[in-house]
Amino acid sequence: MQTGLTSGNEECTVEFRPAISLKAQVQKVELNGKPVRFQVETREGDQHMVVQFPVKSGKYLLRIWLLNEFGCSNQSVLPELGSTSRGLRILSETWSASRDQLTLEVSGAAGSEYELITWDSWEIEKLEGAESGQRPGWSTIRIQILPSELEQYPHKKVVVHFSSAQGKSERR
After folding, report:
1. Strand partners, 101
2. Which of 60, 79, 102, 170 has the smallest number of Cβ neighbours within 10 A?
3. Are 4 and 59 in contact (CB under 8 A)?
4. Cα dihedral angle (164, 165, 168, 172), rounded to 10 degrees?
């Protein structure tokens, strides 16, 4: 993250609280190349790395090094005007106590296929309820919602199992 004051000369404090996955570990945090103190607040569904630093005039570059930061993103598309939504909804994300399994409860239009874009997907050992896929520059999780005459937006459970190897450098 890059920040700084564009006008004035009074010092202010920036507090940055990005969400990170429960599996992630913060290795180090630097501000303009120097170590800076940080905390990690863990909650039921995620963690937040918290860092505060003073800002005066000039530019400030904050860098955060993470290990095991698996994540997935759903690129939602708005329906055409007057149409019903056909997008995938991630209803819940639940991590196992050992943080080696992520369960996603999703809902989507009956008979549709969806893709979640993932990062650090090299950590995935096995998928249940979905398949792994590839796009140029990205790994994906493909989710097929079965056709249903009973439900317009059926639910589906996807379980992501992670390898026990810790750290990308150990894995390569």
Report:
1. 161
2. 170
3. yes
4. -130
Is the distance from CB of 38 to CB of 25 less than 8 angstroms?
A: no
List the one residue out of 115, 97, 94, 112 whose CA is nearest residue 151. Answer: 112
Please write the tens of the pLDDT for every residue from 101-156.
999 999 999 999 999 999 888 889 999 999 999 888 889 999 999 999 999 999 99
10 vs 30: CA distance, rounded Å? 23
> What is residue 169's DSSP assignment?
H
- Binned at pLDDT 50, 70 and 90, residue 169 comes out as very low
Residue range 50-76: average pLDDT?
90
- Strand spans (E) along 68-154: 71-73, 89-95, 101-107, 113-119, 124-128, 131-135, 138-144
Domain 71-171, CATH 2.60.220 — does that match? yes
Q: Return the SS3 of 121.
A: helix
Percentages helix, strand, coil for the chain (3-state, rounded to 5) are: 5, 55, 40
